[in-house]
Request: fold
Amino acid sequence: MNPLVIAGRTFHSRLFIGTGKFGSHELMRQAIEASGSELVTVALRRVDLDKNPEGDPLISKLDPEKVVIVPNTSGARTAEEAIRIARLARAAGGFDWIKLELTPNLHHLLPDPIETLKAAEVLAKEGFKVLPYINADPVLAKRLEEVGTVAVMPLAAPIGTNLGLRNRDMIEIIVANAGVPVVVDAGLGMPSHAAAAIELGADCVLINTAIASAADPVGMAKAFAKAIAAAEEGLDAGPRAPRTVADASSPLTGFLWEKHDH
Amino acid sequence: MTITVNGDARPLGKATTLAQLLDDLGVKTAKKAVELNGEIIAPSAFASTPVAANDQIEIIQFVGGG
Reply:
């Protein structure tokens, strides 16, 4: 497969990793390294001035030479809040990649399409490389591309559910129409889910919960990387299209009971 | 003389600049963002930015997230 390029940057791995929920920063670091991932997401929160005024050392555990660090706007409920978080992320870290994540409802954590589009337009104009987290809506994906997002990130299933590719049909339509890379984000629980996403034509997957909350996050990170590599190799090998009627693999001649007329 | 930092009221103390306040709070400023009354302040301006009673300050950091 051609290498994945987003906003002019080439990625050798089609696995992006979220840094939430790991038992320790060291475990996170090891899982990222084992996965070969070259893009990770982080969140922004207030410093806890009473318990840890020095701050969370997370960011110092990530090597910007090896991974693109993409802050997210998690917690934002409106375009205004997301834009504020994006600007803070740029001020804090100098990062101009932003994962737009606007989830007003904490029960299902599904993204607000209208606020996401509004924020994407503003941030793209401000020079951010915007990766919007969206429900698998092909029309919205196209609208976001038109306002200048560098990718679209449709969800496979709600965040943290491990349900797999529940939005498969709509993601196929997004992939078929997309002019920017498609990153399947959220809900992928098993390596086979990631492989299926790549096989249906997605450019990349973003995994957090499935790796970070596994009993062995490093082992799971390796398993996802292998599954994605297998999917890529399979596509390179030229798979045949599915068909609806049988096509025998064994010869349909020369059966033992065959009668010959000659 | 109180200010609000990250949503909580706190005594301003002797700090007259943002840099002094952050130091008093024990904040390491690397990879942090600071907002003063809704406006982002660049780290290079911390020492020259005055703080006063009733200021609203947010001190933001990176944490793990998906």
About this structure: Helices of chain B lie at 18-25. Chain B touches chain A through 26 residues (CB under 8 Å).
